[in-house]
TrEMBL record:
Entry keywords, A to Z: Copper, Cytoplasm, DNA-binding, Metal-binding, Repressor, Transcription, Transcription regulation
Organism name: Umezawaea tangerina
Presence of the UniProt keyword Nucleotide-binding in the record: no
Protein name: DNA-binding FrmR family transcriptional regulator
Highest classification ranks of the organism: Bacteria, Bacillati, Actinomycetota, Actinomycetes, Pseudonocardiales
Cellular compartments annotated: Cytoplasm
Keyword flag DNA-binding: yes
Pfam families documented for this protein: Trns_repr_metal
GO cellular component terms, semicolon-separated: cytoplasm; protein-DNA complex
């Protein structure tokens, strides 16, 4: 079981909302909307995805990494490395 399982419905709802935002962006471009308006909506969709990412990362740290750290050994080292790499990717985005 993954750490986010208990909040799966909330994550899916948020992702569906982002999906709707992206479809709206496609319509805006198709309708030749004003550039700044499109960019504003892109920023909103990006922030929404970042919020989902941070929530998933938090769940991963609380569940997967904490459990592995309690057990120790190479599995713990691997989970911590994975989390560090995920954080690095998020910071760069």
């Amino acid at each position: 079981m993954h750490g986010y399982t208990s909040n799966k419905d909330a994550y899916l709802k948020r992702l569906r909302r982002v999906e709707g935002q992206v479809r709206g962006l496609q319509r805006m471009v198709d309708n030749d909307e004003y550039c700044i308006d499109v960019l504003t909506q892109i920023s909103a969709a990006t922030k929404a995805l970042q919020a989902v990412s941070l929530g998933l990362l938090d769940e991963h740290l609380k569940h997967c990494v904490a459990q592995a750290a309690a057990e120790g050994g190479p599995v713990a080292d691997e989970k911590i490395r994975e989390a560090s790499e995920a954080i690095s990717r998020l910071v760069r985005s």
